[in-house]
Amino acid sequence: MDYLLHILILVALYGILAVSLNLIAGYTGLLSVAHAAFYGVGAYVTALMALHWHTPFLLNVVAGMVVAGVVGVLVAAPSLRVHDDYFVLTTFAFQVIAFSILNNWVDVTGGPMGLPGIPQPALFGLAISSHWGFLLLTSAFLTVGFWFSHRLAESPYGRVLKAIREDEVFARSLGKDVTRYKVEVFVLGAMLAATAGSLYAVYITFIDPTSFTVPESIFILAVVIVGWAGNLWGSLVGAALLVTL
Predict the structure, then answer these.
(1) CB 198 within 8 Å of CB 43
(2) Closest by Cα among 215, 184, 179, 163 to 29
(3) pLDDT exceeding 90 applies to what percent of the chain?
(4) Which residues contact 160 (CB under 8 A, 6 or more apart)?
């Protein structure tokens, strides 16, 4: 039973990652292979704060989202000056750089040895340590993330994102600030991915750079593609299918 619950928890985590990447790749047409880097940012910020400062879990999640958002702006602003294959290459370069930093900044990240002994979370005085507890926690975050993404995708804002995906020049001709929309959705996707990283860190209680590599980014992108890019429900189906397999 614990193994089945573990699989369901991973499905929920990858569901969050796929939904967040779907906003970027599926709805806006920005093919990013750097999503595991933002996943890692959330995990490491949460782990470091919990280990060194013993701060509450929800505060750690928010901090991870903020740091991922700032990094997302720094990555998106120059990267979005290029298009198509060149954008893919810039996100690939960032993913490689992020892994290198995590792997070599030993004093902070632990380097290849990682960060062991990450404390498990407590919400409202209730410690979460069982598989059932983590399944409820990850499912709650997935529900909120999916609801937010769905409302965004179906709003006028989401329709602009789809217009950019279909014809960027036409969207620009309608007076839309295309670059601003691209940066914003990239940052939102990065922040949502960071929440999955925070959950992963406190669930596994150990993280190291090998969990946040290029192949991991490609796997997340595969989940989006298998579930049908531009369809948030498909992201959940893709996560369930590929993680289970």
Answers:
(1) yes
(2) 163
(3) 93
(4) 171, 176, 181
